[in-house]
Design goal:
The chain is of the alpha/beta class. It has one domain: Rossmann fold. Helices cover 38% and strands 23% of the residues.
Length: 230
């Protein structure tokens, strides 16, 4: 498949990724887990195309105080922490500053968990094929935290899927996941936004709406109306 950058949108990226994932992922017992917020539109398209269960995995990047886009590490639900030791040392972040950052991001993770999932039971991962999705991967810190969090639930297979990522990050993720699917690995990499024509911020309302659409029972569509879970 020839991929032309920039991609039109996250939705297009999801459909293209679904084409690559289809031969790799069994239809039965497949779970798509998107990393909010940008990964949700991508993951939703994949789940729709593959007729798979869809949910979100809460992960928060630990951005350097002087440059929030620089990932010192990441945290995930369940107390998972993954740190970029070299970046933390280079940024000269004091331990107490890092601890405060972890505390702040843990609170935000919990806020989003309650906002997005609304006490919905967590899906069973044991013995299942799980695809972790984001709208792009730079350092890989958030995805590595996601992989670590999912591995604790003993899935049969963990697949990472993203539209774009630098080659060295893809190599690292390939050593941690059972398979890694990426549409393009451009160099130099820079910001993820440069690889999309349309790259708006994904608001909480859009995440909630897409989850509601994915979670509605098959009989919820009737007489031209959509009934959303509340």
């Amino acid at each position: 498949m020839a991929i032309v950058l920039p991609l039109q949108s996250r939705e297009e990226a999801g459909r293209l990724l679904a084409d690559l994932l289809a031969p790799l992922c069994p239809e039965d017992n497949l779970l798509i887990l998107a990393l909010p917020r940008g990964g949700v539109p991508v993951g939703f398209e994949i789940a729709q195309a593959l007729r798979a269960e869809f949910d979100v995995l809460l992960v928060r990047k630990l951005g350097a105080p002087s440059n929030p886009e620089l990932a010192l590490g990441a945290i995930a639900a369940g107390g998972i922490q993954v740190m970029n030791g070299e970046v933390t040392a280079w940024a000269d972040v004091a331990p107490e500053v890092l601890s405060a950052l972890v505390e702040t991001e843990t609170l935000e993770l919990q806020r989003r968990l309650e906002l997005y999932r609304r006490h919905r039971p967590w899906p069973q991962l044991a013995g299942r094929s799980v695809v972790l999705v984001d709208d792009g991967i730079a350092t890989g810190a958030t995805m590595r935290a996601a992989i670590a969090a999912v591995r604790t639930q003993e899935p049969s297979r963990v697949v990472v899927a993203a539209p774009v990522a630098p080659p060295d990050t893809v190599a690292t993720l390939m050593s941690l996941a059972d398979a890694t699917v990426c549409l393009a690995t451009p160099e130099p990499f820079g910001a993820i936004a440069r690889f999309y024509r349309e790259f708006p911020q994904v608001p909480d309302a859009e995440v909630i709406s897409l989850l509601a659409r994915a979670w509605q029972p098959p009989h919820a569509v009737a007489r031209g109306s959509v009934l959303l879970n509340h």
